[in-house]
Automatic annotation (TrEMBL):
GO biological process, one term: phosphoenolpyruvate-dependent sugar phosphotransferase system
Domain spans labelled PTS EIIB type-3: 3-107
Pfam families: PTS_IIB
Protein keywords: Kinase, Phosphoprotein, Phosphotransferase system, Sugar transport, Transferase, Transport
Keyword Kinase: yes
Positions carrying Phosphocysteine: C10
Signal peptide: none
InterPro entries the UniProt entry points to: PTS_EIIB-like_sf, PTS_EIIB_2/3, PTS_EIIB_3, PTS_sugar-specific_EIIB
Protein name per the record: PTS sugar transporter subunit IIB
Protein species of origin: Lactobacillus taiwanensis
A GO MF label: protein-N(PI)-phosphohistidine-sugar phosphotransferase activity
């Protein structure tokens, strides 16, 4: 079982799949055992209930949902952030992973 779980959410859960792969590679290089997955924004509540992630990161394209999602994550005690647009556009998995680690206190 993974030490930590990182959940990414975007419009359909598809555009973040490459970023998930790059984050997994970066985690492996750092010797971290993380479960990293992407989901559609519409499934955030179900995935939080099922997976109990340690952090939730929203894709920039769903940034408008941050306030409503924050209510869910606050209730669940999960840190929330929006992925930096430049990191997302460049698919910088290493930097996005570092951001997640900071939020989880696992640097």
């Amino acid at each position: 079982m993974a030490d930590k779980t990182i959940m990414l959410a975007c419009s359909a859960g598809m555009s973040t799949s490459l970023l998930v792969s790059k984050m997994q590679n970066a985690a492996k290089e750092k010797g971290k055992d993380y479960k990293i997955f992407a989901t559609a924004a519409s499934g955030i509540q179900d995935e939080i209930d099922k997976e109990h992630p340690d952090v939730l990161m929203l894709g920039p394209q769903v940034q408008y949902m941050e306030d409503s999602v924050k209510k869910i994550t606050d209730e669940a005690g999960i840190p929330l952030t929006v992925i930096n647009m430049q990191d997302y556009g460049m698919m910088n998995g290493e930097h996005v992973l570092e951001t997640a680690q900071e939020l989880m206190g696992d640097k």
